[in-house]
Amino acid sequence: MEELEFELIGASDPRVLEAIALGDKARKTVGLLPRAAYADAARNKRLLVASVDAEVIGYALYGLPRNEVTLTHLVVNASHRRQGIARALVEEISKLYHTRSGIRANCRKDYKLADMWTSLGFHPRLEIKGRGADRATIVVWYRNNPGHVDLLTPDASPLLRAAIDLNILRDLHDRPGRKGAWESLSLVEDHLADKLQLIATPQLYHEVTGIEDDQARNRYLAAMAHGYIKAHGDRRRAAELTREWIELARTRQSSYPVTAQDHEDAKHLGDAAACGAEVFVTRDEHLLQLANGTAQAALGISVLRPADVVLRIDELTRPDSYRPSDLHGTGYSRHEVSAQSEDELTTFQNVAERETKKAFLNALLTAATVPGHWNRTLIRDPEGRPVLLCVSGIANERLEVPLLRVDARHPISGTIVQHTLSDLRHQCRRHQTKILAITDPHLAAAVRRTALTDGFTETDSALIALVIDRVGPASQVQAAAEEAARRAGFRLSFALRAEMGIFAAAEVERTLWPAKVTDAQLPVYILPIQPRWSTVLFDVPPTLPLFRTEDWGLGREHVYYRSPNGPKLSAPARLLWYKSQGTGTLKGPPSIIGCSLLEEVVVDTPVALHTRFGRLGVWTQQDIFSAAKHGKAQALRFTHTEIFDTPPSGDEIRKIFTKGGLSGTIQGPRRISAELFKTIYCGDVHGNRATQAGHPAVAEA
């Protein structure tokens, strides 16, 4: 065989069509993806093709959710199978995304491909029921990247809850297939089994029971009984939402509803919204046009065609779907819940999980009966609308969260949930407790999933995060984590060891934050930063609030640019930020102001870097050009930032550097030993241990 070549191709590359042709031929085993899914993957550099002599002989199409890679398609031309092409594609993905924990893939059990997945280095992680007509079992396969510890709890909770109309139901269960049904069938492909939950609303049952054809009616009812979640929304609320939708639709079509179908559609939309569905799926072009851009605002539900649902899930699985840049220049605010505001908070009632209004208000009122013990916190958006509600307090030697709710309709709800989870970890650190327990019995699936991907462990009664405030060798951190896990009622699922690889150490420090494992191979760098950038990113030195906007406080991650010249940095690693002296109004003594976890280092042109990371920073394209040398700049993507309460003074820095064998000024990145890092981080020179960031808005950004 000629030399095998790999390339991530763009949306305009003609090889996208070659990949689509291969996928169509293999659709019996990999499923049929909408054409738009290929274009979207290529546009976001998630379509990897394998070529020989310019001919595409295989491809991998994948997503990048959280800290892993999810394979949607892994396809090799039949004439080139059993030549190691599939393994080569998987290995190439593993190399491209070596900082991620691993690769995940879904496959039907009855395809009997266990030997193949095992030979590719995967292991079975979870089994779930598919939603196709035969309800086949889906196996979730996982392949850890080298050096990574699998710290995440296997999870099958959906990313999206979607109600379907009668025509979609017919598409999925009529045999032979109806015209255009291929689009609806994409909803039950294996790779979506753990991401999409299909809902049968009371209105759908009503419409099905009205079908005169006994055979068809019974077929649909049998399918709904076994392949769908039967939703029970509040009937009065459904009627209210139906009326609201009709009033809104009349602003576009004054005579609406005109036909019997219009009346059914209106009832179905109201029903779906009352049942907690995030999406209503239809191929009705009239309804799609009428609802475009309006149903979400009025009812909190999007009306989408099946192909767009597949793309919506893909969007939700990408890290940049959190869109921290959406917060730029806004005015999100944090408040204590007052008695006067309790009535408006019923929007946080989890109707989808059958929580009653009385039970919700009782939970809220119970927390109010012990003022000072429970914190009832409300986050409002710039328009004053409630976005997130959190009740927390110290109980049973742990920080308990009996109520954690978010308005899932809000465009940046994911960002705010992640910010809140980080803030709760900081509260644990302040209270010197090692256990954070979310005990909300009606936690939304999206919040639960975010917590699980953020290092929480699920027990019978709670979601638990361990907050291990220990800096030391693996044995000490392991002992502290095991003791905390024992008190929390579960056993630690991983073991730390001396000389852990850099990827395993980074995952441990993310999961057990603020733990730092000093005998791991994780490198540590001191990195100089100019005050104008430390001010914007970290509020050090502090400035007027209008200069530093909320996206830095609520954003999940940040980026810093520098010249690619000088010592090379590798990721993951720890960063210590060395603020230089500065000039003018920002002039001040140099100091080491905090630390972060370096997640990624990318060298490219300023235009390419701004396109890739522009959502994360205040840097303009011109700023990146200013940092570049010979047409290239270096982007450092980092998370888990802590700002030191008492940064060392100039004299203390000199003592630290002398103790660590450093001489001269810090002009560029300098790698230091783990012992010197511990000296700086723990404040051994000046007697003050670094605690939570002095500016909570940027703590663990």
UniProtKB/TrEMBL annotation:
Cleaved signal peptide residues: none
CDD domains membership: NAT_SF
Domain N-acetyltransferase residues, every copy: 4-144
InterPro entries reported for this sequence: Acyl_CoA_acyltransferase, GNAT_dom
Domain of life: Bacteria
Name the UniProt record assigns to this protein: GNAT family N-acetyltransferase
Organism (species): Actinoallomurus acaciae
